[in-house]
């Protein structure tokens, strides 16, 4: 087994505070002793903060970067910034100096630079962004959340394979159920591309390659109807962000409600721990980490306004995926299905 | 001005209780004195309940129906059920015996039967389902929520015109701002159909036909970035249902949290009124009413599991739209833009 796992972190180009990132990494390091980090950012600023974290200093290498990719950079700009913190962090992975890359910056840039440098697994056409979505029963894997906005049966099937692998590793279950997101559960509803993908997935399911449930609707995600929710990157992205907005709206209304009278203020005080825990459980700043699957190495994108808890949560997940050899397992899974299809 | 407004209600084919529907209508009648109702359902059962509501009995005509359209009926079945409560309720509108139709049943059926019998306004190709979505600043109009799953620039532009008319009437504002739902706010992001619609809307906006804001993202809906949110019926349906699921998840976590200890139980008791109000404000059973716009008369679809508050809320909105002559105004708006385009 590999002794250490090295994570390259792109520290620039987002609104996440450097202190939050380092605090989060330090917390994760306490739980995941065999972590090493490569920190891509402003060396002077990193040094000012990192000396507060003794163990973190010992296992981290700082790589000074002046240039970074901003949220507004266009695709053409991104490719030209060869010295940006994001580009160098990704390069360290493609050159095998590290095992995975974590960024808080421009998602499209992380996607296209990873695709170009880390490349996809054999048999996978396009990577997808997957996320762990809280639901009423626990958690599910939802993908694609924006890597690829084209609706195409082939991509939906790839996403089913990738999501199923990820769920089986992260949730430690054997045959994760897969739902295809649609405007109704009935077979005759929705777009042709979805019906075509559904037919293929039914065949796969009949032959026990995958455990396909059928079409599911938007509300089924939070109800935890299936372990994996598959959709295209356009629908998935809007769906994820709508859920984030709804959670924020709920929190804001709740805050206002509790301020409305002395009684509710006392009520809030008494119940504050419980309310805090609900907010944390659904806070996108804590939970929003997009795992880019289907690449030869892991690339993870965290919310652009992450808190230290979100950083440590993401670092924990990456560690667990590396420890479980996620890419080898996914490749094995993909090969296995493809061999079965050839037979 | 018209003296009475008659609403035809399809009482069958959903999980909403008859008692909830009649209670809701009765409540709305107290506020909207010039309402009349045509009730399509099982006459015997209606009579058993309605005698509790004196005024409601006086202004209601009961039409006995044995047949109904179920949630699982396929498009072909729907057209054949000429004696179903939904079909007869819609027919009463197309025959001018009533001004609008309200149903709690099969959305697709209500859509296709209305399209066939009530027909679209001149200049509008396909109707859309619009909903009033709560946001942090108040409310916005979101459409299409599932009438038409095809992504086409023409439909997106029609939806912008319809949504803008609806928002100006319901929210009493002059130039409602319109956002086009996309995976990013940047101009180069998203699908070609969206970019084409956006270019046309920009032209419209430059000429003051409409007030187009630009692309918005999923989280902007709940943040109230624009008065109107325009999307295709596929994305809108999944987005709406995802938001519903998230709200339910939040409520469920909150309920669990408050049960966790004696202190939180007391806290809940003290804050219960405030919490109730937040729940109500975001409860899809109260708020989920889909207004089918672009037809010659109003057709409204309520949540299949509505409560009496949801029914009275929907009846209030319908009354307000009828009183404000919504369809004449929309037609005027559409004609106006088309005349400007010809000039």
CATH class of the largest domain in chain A: Alpha Beta
Largest interface: A-B, 66 and 66 residues
Rg result of chain A: 21 Å
What's the quaternary structure here? homodimer
The 3D shape of chain A can be described as globular
| Level-2 CATH architecture of the largest domain in chain A | 3-Layer(aba) Sandwich
CATH topology of the largest domain in chain A: Isopropylmalate Dehydrogenase
The CATH superfamily of the largest domain in chain A is identified as Isopropylmalate Dehydrogenase
Briefly note the structural class of the backbone of chain A: alpha/beta
Strand arrangement, major sheet of chain A: 3-2-1-4-11-10-5-6-9-7-8
| Percent range for β-strand residues of chain A | 15-25%
The percent of residues in helical segments of chain A reads 40-55%
Count every beta strand of chain A, where a strand is a DSSP E run of 2 or more residues. 11
H/I helix tally of chain A: 14
Q: How do the SSEs of chain A run, as a string of H and E?
A: EHEHHEHHEHEEHEHEHEHHHEEHH
Cα-to-Cα separation, first versus last residue of chain A: 33 Å
Mean pLDDT over all positions of chain A: 90
